Amino acid sequence: MKLLLYHYGTIVVAFFASSKYFLKYVVKIDESLRKWPFDTSVLCKSSTFAGYSINMEHLEEAAIFLSDGNHLLPQLSIDCVVFGFHEAQLKVLLLKFKNSEYWALPGGFIEQEEDLDAAAQRILQERTGVKNIYLEQFHVFGKVGRSFPEMHKNLMKASGLEIPDAHWIFKRFVTVGYFALVDFSEVVAAPDLFSEYCDWFDIKAIPELIFDHNEIVQKGLETLQRSLDEKLVGFKLLPETFTMGELQALYETILDRPVLRTNFQRKMLSLHILERVEKRYSGGAHKAPFLYRFLNKNSV
Asked: By C-alpha distance, which of 110, 126, 118 is closest to 57?
């Protein structure tokens, strides 16, 4: 991608251009860039430009975002609900947009020549830095009035981006929801060009999100709760061996309700996904709980 810079007093107009895309980014320069011409090497892979943190790896994504959209599937998007579990806590991964109080799910658009599942993985990695996690499609959100032009304008303005009123982003969009469940202690998320930072929020303390993202989170949680039995093995949230009590604690956290111990154990054993291996000795042998492991940790 080629970078062209034009200087007007205390304003820098930056044009990021490739062979296919074109993006204008208008910002006030800070003290470190007041001498003209300045060394464009300051715009390195990850640096601060005119008060905005810019990751150069995402500049082409931004250019694509503001292009005519012909390279994208029209009026179709993806939103990812990433649930994090650790030590009996259930959280959701959210992004905070730059220079605003707006929080959102990681989301994006699908290329014309891209598989839907591959797009979900790419979007999650580009928006948060998170990769190689199991994502599953759970619902399509397509109400007639699903259009948010004023919110989009505010978001772009907060990032210093100018787009015309007739831009394709202001049209109605249908979004495909994907969800995942990971051990959030093992996930290091990083924000993209448009976001200040990523953070984990307790499932009971999620702030008001942009668009209909609160509805998407709730639908994703309901889907997770309904499908926990069949999806638990693939999520890999427990150690290689674990007690029935540890498994029950995970269920109770995700379901947000207590479960009866005897019924729970009977149910889990009837699913034929567990193998009993040995006892965990921590005192008297008669008090030691049995250890279990999943028969196939790679199944989903």
From this structure: 126
User: How would DSSP label each residue in 260-276?
Assistant: -HHHHHHHHHHTT-EEE
DSSP string, 150-166: HHHHHHHHHTT----TT
Asked if 72 contacts 111 with a C-beta cutoff of 8 angstroms, the reply is yes
CATH 3.90.79.10 in the chain, residue ranges: 70-226
Give the confidence band of 17 by pLDDT, cuts at 50, 70, 90.
very low
Share in percent of the chain as helix, strand, coil (round to 5): 30, 30, 35
pLDDT at 48 over 60: no
pLDDT at residue number 68: 61
Q: Residue 30, Cβ neighbours under 10 Å: how many?
A: 14
Please give the CATH topology (third level) of the domain spanning 70-226: Nucleoside Triphosphate Pyrophosphohydrolase (3.90.79)
Distance separating alpha carbons of residues 255 and 278, to the nearest angstrom: 28
The residue whose two tokens read 């470190």 is 32
Query: Under 8 Å CB-to-CB from 257, ≥6 apart: which residues?
Result: none
